[in-house]
Each structure stands twice: as structure tokens, then as C-alpha cells.
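Sample pair:
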Amino acid sequence: MPTPLNISQALEELTAALGPNAVFAEADVPLRNRNDYSGLLPTQPLAMLRPADTKGVSDALRICHAHGLSVVPQGGLTGLVGGARAEAHEIALSLERLVGIEEIDSDAATLTAWAGTPLETVQQAALDAGYFCPLDLGARGSCAIGGNLSTNAGGNRVIRYGMAREMVLGLEVVLADGTVITSLNKMIKNNAGFDLKHLFIGSEGTLGIITRVVLKLFPKPGSTMVAMCAAPDYATVLKLLSSARASLGPLLSAFEVMWPDYWQFATTQAPGVRNPFAGDDTAYAAYVLIEAQGTDPEADAPRFEQWLGGLLEDGTLPNAAVAQSLSGEKAFWGVRDACGELHQFWPRHLAFDIGLPVTRMDEYARRFKQQLGDLVPGCKSVFYGHIGDSNVHIVTHLDGVAEQPKDAVEQIVYGLVREYGGTVSAEHGIGTIKRRWLGHARSPEQIALMQTLKAALDPKNILNPGKVI
């Protein structure tokens, strides 16, 4: 542990290198930099740094490395697993000043941005240039693109475009000792040795701090079709997914499933949400939001409606509705996005992000609810998720208690995940909250290799220590 004298010397050097307006010590650390969105208690870091460019990040890490001070990188602070939360003996390094679109290369169809740039800014810049950035998640207005890559964010359109990793061509990264690795590659084909960017995407700032990114851009959609479908059983959900893939092909951009428990909350309690099946009181087994995007409005919409109409005519689907306008599309998505309102009704609820074999998700849900009822009587739960890419979300809440039964619920969630051969994190990362459960999804040999990589790139263990492994 660094001594007070050592800390004082380090802060003096940091202030000299970054400027007095870029270094906030102890009590001066802004409240927003004392926590992320994990629900853990706030901390008071030793200091918070706000470098303005790559050199500033490099100088900060070089000085902290020399003094043995731990550094926790922070982006938009929207993470849910404690990955950006700096402890009392650590220094928070915010990328909030590293913002802006550096370049859009129309010939290469790429966008280069600073890591602190909000995802929504990246999306809008792509649209303004006639392109599309498909990475999308609920925190788009607050999350930073560098944080999205450090956690390998997923979101709503993974079924078509893949995780964040699939959209990255190049990175600039600063290593623990301040070394800058600049590889702002724009080429899709580049097999010159190890593809080092993949070391840093998804490693949650434990191996290096991302400062700039190069993203692939895609054609701007010329048509968007959104439908809400009712399914009488989970077998129909799987049949619908298979049919969508076969009939819509590359048009299929989202396939979101909501179990009845979630649907009931969203359509009866969440403010501003309209029930697309108002007047139909049937209790269906599942509800599916399907989105398709194409480039030919005249052909895409008829193709989509013909496909969906066929499923209604042959009895596969008992009910379905197609959005007829942009406001209709937003209303359908509003049902799915109502999960963001759960905190109003279930304060300090427990939220889980897991991956499972698609065919066994409903079986998992039924077994989970049974075990939850046996172990934690009265505990409520809802299920929803990106089923097309094997991701399901679970939210639980027990009324009338000071602390939620976290350990008991986690034992059920992750015990079943291991039994079903799933993953403890589909898109949110590991951070500190899920670290104890990593062995349920990764073998001892895999974890040992992660530790070897960490020791090689950060031998002093100063970069986001205690996270992931």
C-alpha cells in the first residue's frame, strides 16, 4: 500500500503533468465519480483524474505506475457490475474529456472517435453521414463508446450485427506503464500477426485503457418493420425464431422475448406503455418483438407482412400486430424497454444478465421460479431478453425487507446456469459483482490464462485491480 508521502508526491506530479483542473483529490472528487450504476455503496477515491487526450492518459498511468497507485478507468459510469467503481485507496481516471468524432471515412465506411464519446453521439454522427452504427443499448445517451468496448457490450441488435467486438477495426490503448499502442486500423482484412485489439475488448480496463476507436459502419436502413407477436407456448417461440431467420434472412435485426410476468408489469404498471393487444385478454406463454431492417422500402415491408401473415393464417401465431408508423414502432419498443422503470416499483431490485442455450430458456425459467419460491418465499421475478442471441435477463425483488436476499438468489441463478452450460454474463461484464461466479462459466485453465495475460501486461496490478479475476 502506498504511503501518504508517496501519494502526496504522486498527486504533485499528476497536477504538474495534467494541470490543476484535471486532478481532484479525495473530498473534491465529484459525487458521480464515486460509483457506477451497480447499486453498490459509493466510495471516496484517493483522487479523480480528467486527462484531455491520449498523452494525458499516458502521463497519468506512467506516474501512477511509478508510485504503485491503482487506477480505475471510468467512462459513462452506466455499468451494472461494479467495474468502474474506484475503492478508497484507488484513483479514478475519467475519460469524460476524451470526446468527439475524429473522422468519418466514407470510402472505408469507418468512424474514428475518442473513447469518452457517448454512444448516442456516435450513432447520430453515423446517421448524419448516411451510415448506421448498429450498437445500441438503453444507456445510449450516457454510456461511452470506450466503456462499451471494454465490456464488449451487446444490446438489441446482436442477432444481426454481433457484439461490440464485431464492429471494431482499430484501437488506441494505453498500457499500465503509460506505453501507447496506436493501431487505428481501417482495413477489414489485416492478418499481420496477433490481432491485439481483442485483448482489450471485453477485458474491462484490466489490461489497458482504450483512448480512441475505429468502428465499422453499415448501410443506413431504408426500411424498418416492427411486429409484436403472441406465442401460446415456448415451442412456438423457437419455431418463430427459426422461421424469421429462414424467411427474413439478413433483414432480421432484433428478436426480443418477454415472459408473461414481465409483460404483465410492462403493460399494466410501467408509465406510458401501451398494450399492443388491448382487448385480447388471453394469457399467452410469451410475447415476441421482432424487428427487421432493409434497404428497399418497396420490397421489404410486403415481404415482412407476407411472412407474418402466413404464420397467422396457418395457426402458428394466435395474434400479432405490425407497427404502422414510427410512433407505433417506438410504442412496441416501449414495452420491451419498460425494464428501465422497474426500479420505481422494486427499489434495490436484483438484476441478472445470463446466457443460456436457446432451447432450454423456458425450462430454466420454470425451474428458477420453483426454486426461488422454495428458498425465498414471496420473492417476485420477471424474465425477458434477447433470445435470438442466447441472452436472458432476470429481475427479482422481495417486498418489505431492508436488504434483498442477494446470496440466496445468486445461488439459484448461477447454480442453474452452470447446470445448463450457460454463462454468468452475456453482455454486462464481470466487474466485482460477478467475480466469485466466474468459475461457473470458465474452466480453471481459462481463468489461469486470463491471470497470465494480466500479469504480463500489468505486472504491478495497478489497472482496475480486483475486477474480473
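The two ends are 20 Å apart (CA to CA).
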